[in-house]
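Try this one yourself first.
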């Protein structure tokens, strides 16, 4: 029962975040915005930081599911990449993405509350992205490198977009990257 209550509360927190962000809000302000008390948030998530990390974990899970769904809709890897980029570049996701990068920065400094995030921020993505490259016919020995490059470049482009707001050039760069990362390797000499 407590797990169901926790998930329902997390659902409300994710919805609240998507409405306008809350990384700058206090735990009491988040509680008020989600129709609960700060004590319930502490009970279920341990701290404000624990709540933020769980919100990011949930959104990351949703993003992986969206990428997997897109990969089943098309066997054209460039088109899959384009569709996924359009999803990521949607301004409605910006509050969640800003929170993601905020948590990422804390993880770089090894904050104890980011331990789960650090363990999953790369690992949770690499396997599914490697599998996607495999399903699209790429050499399985190159899949780990392609997955890491795709993950790093996409996050870099997203960070650029969030900072500059320059959709036109970043969208073009994302499209160029999609074509480059999905190109077959040159023949071996």
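Now uncover the answer:
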């Amino acid at each position: 029962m407590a797990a169901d209550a926790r998930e329902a509360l997390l659902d409300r927190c994710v919805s609240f975040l998507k409405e306008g962000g809350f990384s700058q809000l206090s735990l009491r302000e988040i509680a008020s915005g989600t129709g609960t008390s700060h004590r319930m948030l502490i009970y279920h998530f341990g701290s404000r930081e624990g709540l933020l990390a769980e919100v990011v974990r949930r959104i990351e899970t949703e993003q992986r599911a969206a990428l997997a769904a897109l990969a089943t809709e098309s066997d054209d890897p460039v088109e899959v990449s384009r569709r996924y980029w359009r999803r990521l570049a949607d301004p409605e996701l910006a509050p969640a993405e800003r929170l993601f990068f905020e948590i990422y920065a804390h993880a770089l400094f090894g904050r104890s509350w980011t331990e789960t995030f650090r363990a999953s921020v790369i690992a949770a993505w690499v396997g599914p992205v490697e599998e996607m490259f495999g399903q699209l016919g790429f050499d399985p020995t190159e899949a780990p490198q392609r997955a890491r490059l795709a993950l790093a470049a996409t996050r870099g482009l997203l960070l650029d977009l969030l900072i500059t707001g320059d959709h036109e050039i970043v969208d073009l760069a994302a499209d160029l990257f999609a074509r480059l990362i999905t190109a077959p390797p040159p023949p071996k000499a």
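Discussion: The longest helix spans residues 48-73. Residues 48-181 form a domain with the Tetracycline Repressor; domain 2 fold (CATH 1.10.357.10).
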